[in-house]
Amino acid sequence: MKNVIIVGAGFGGISSAALLAKNGFQVTVLEKNESPGGRSSVYSEKGFFFDMGPSWYLMPDVYENFYSEFDQKAEDFFLLKKLDPSYRIFSYDEAVYDLSANPEKNYQLFESFEPGGGEKLKEYLKSSRELYEFSIKEMLYKDYNSILDLLSGKLLLKSLKLHLWENLEDYINQQFESDQARKILKYAIGFLGGAPQNTPSFYHLVSHADLTMGVWYPQGGMRKVVKTLYELAQSYGAVFRFDEPVEKLEIQDKLVKKVVTSEGSYAPDLVIVTADYPHSELDLLTPDHQTYSQKYWEKRTISPSAMVVYLGVDIKVGKLIHHNLFLNKDWETGFDYIFDPEKAEWPEDPSYYVNVPSKTDESAAPPGSDTLYLLIPLAPGMVDTPELRETLYNHILDDLESKIKLNIRDHVQVKKLFAINDFKERYNAYKGTAFGLTHTLRQTALWRPAHLSKKAENLYYSGQYTHPGIGVPMVMVSSQIIVQDIMKRRDLMKDRN
């Protein structure tokens, strides 16, 4: 088990590489693209820098747990700034709300939405915190291989408070009456690539992450986090090979014997695949060696794709802060367009997100300019054409300009549209999903794809498809879980010898 090949240099790949190299393994990481980061790649042009994927730094305790494996802290690698306001919401009725880093201000905001709203939010966040802390301690860092792993005594005792059989939509509607409060709290599930109607209510624990723990920004962006992990892995001897896509995994006698790439082949003792899980199974393995067939993936609930707009403008954009959410009136229909295959179509009036990192980080744009990242959720698997992209782009710009009372189009210096086909091509993303598998009850913990292949004893998977799920912190935890298992197996082998 000395020689490890890791497929993919996203957060899952570089975090696994760092952990294994530190523990004495010989690690080679194979990446199809030109640089580390995976979905956290970087696009730059004319002095504008864009984090192409994740832009929220949440759950700082999970990052700290990871860096502690190296006897370090996150701030040994980059400067963290707590954003205040955490984010701004532009409502369909032209109201604008700031969610503060100060909980008291948020209680006052919710009190303005409905009588007793402040106290309701306190109770909601109290429950959210309890579930979050329980999840971190009892669930997050554990692997699940059977129903017995899931139904532990502590988990059974918590089952009532976990609201296991209730969806987030119903749970929040019971707690709050106002449309404003409901929309704000339901939007948080977007961090997990889900919809309130199909996500178990215990995931309201994510509200503790953004409304209590706060929203942070690593100076230099998420690309800085990627860079530090990449350099950390290299410092322990991990080797990275870019522009070298893996083409095949050859299995004999329940072991991966050969990893075939565009440049040659490798004979590993152990393989960790952090590339897109469906692609890795369906395209790199023969059907008899696939743990999950084409039919399995077709039955899964896939999280949204997106159209991401990268804009560099030669003015400072007022009225926007670092994170901005634009919520439309027809909320429920918007989710139908994404999650109901029969209704899926390119939206005309969607909710969307605007990130302006240059509000916090001067290095993101030239002086006097701003870097804008706009994300519009789309249903995965739809037809994607330049004409559809341009039409949606113009709809969004019309809406954005009208709400912030500013002409943006005349000041665009850099423009790049990235959508479904790009997710497929650049990341081999199944149906062009931007996130992976959404968090329905049947796609949580034990019911997410397994970390260890059932067809090869030396083949692991890590990343957003596996437990614990979607998001950078979750992907890093996934890597910690598999490395813990690999270390146990190595120790057992040593004992036997």
Query: How large a portion of the residues is in β-strands, by DSSP E?
Result: 15-25%
By secondary-structure content and strand pairing, the structural class works out as alpha/beta
Instruction: Kindly report how far apart the N and C termini lie.
Output: 13 Å
* Cα gyration radius (Å): 22 Å
Number of domains: 3
- Please tally the β strands and state the result: 19
- Determine the fraction of residues in helical runs and give it as a percent range: 25-40%
Largest sheet: 7 strands, mixed
* SS summary, helix count: 16
CATH topology annotation of the largest domain: FAD/NAD(P)-binding domain
Strand order of the largest sheet: 7-6-15-16-17-14-18
Shape: globular
User: Which residues sit in consecutive blocks of at least 5 with pLDDT less than 50?
Assistant: none
